[in-house]
Amino acid sequence: MDTKFPRNMCFAKKHNKKGLKKMQASNPNAMSARAEAIKALRKPKEVKSKIPKGGSHKLSRLAYIIHPKLGKCARAHIAKCLRLCWLKSKAKAQTEVQAAPPPAQAQALAPKGAQPPTKAPE
Question: Does the residue 70 lie in any domain?
Fold first, then answer.
């Protein structure tokens, strides 16, 4: 087998296609048939869901979340915010527990003769 055979085949295919295209261009019937075939192959455009502008903020936010393409990003963003808020609140609760001394230690830290604070009568 010739070593250049596959390369020659590609060359021949390309040039055969060029010749075919020239023939189709010269033949008006073939051109119209080709145009019809292209139209048949082309998919009809999908109706895009529109995000309402103005009006209720809540409704527009919901429409944004429901949107097929934009909603994916919005849902990911919301989930990320929720994760971050949960971690922050968890860390804050831990620091509050560590910072607040137990009641026995609070009395020990108070100066002698000081009375514990009482609620004012309403």
Answer: yes
Residues 14, 20: Cα–Cα separation, whole Å: 10
Torsion of CA 22, 27, 32, 36, to 10 degrees: -50
- How far is it, in rounded angstroms, from Cα 44 to Cα 89? 50
Q: The tokens of 41 are what?
A: 């192959």
Q: Quick check: 85 and 103 in contact, CB under 8 A?
A: no
pLDDT digits (tens, 9 = 90+) for 60-82: 677 777 777 778 888 888 888 88
Question: What total of structural domains would you count in the chain?
Answer: 2
What per-residue confidence (pLDDT) applies to 66?
Answer: 79
- H/E segment holding residue 47: none
- Does 116 map to a domain? no
Would you say how long the chain is, in residues?
122
Q: What is the pLDDT of residues 2-45, one digit of tens each?
A: 555 556 666 666 656 666 666 656 666 666 776 777 777 766 66
122 found inside a domain: no
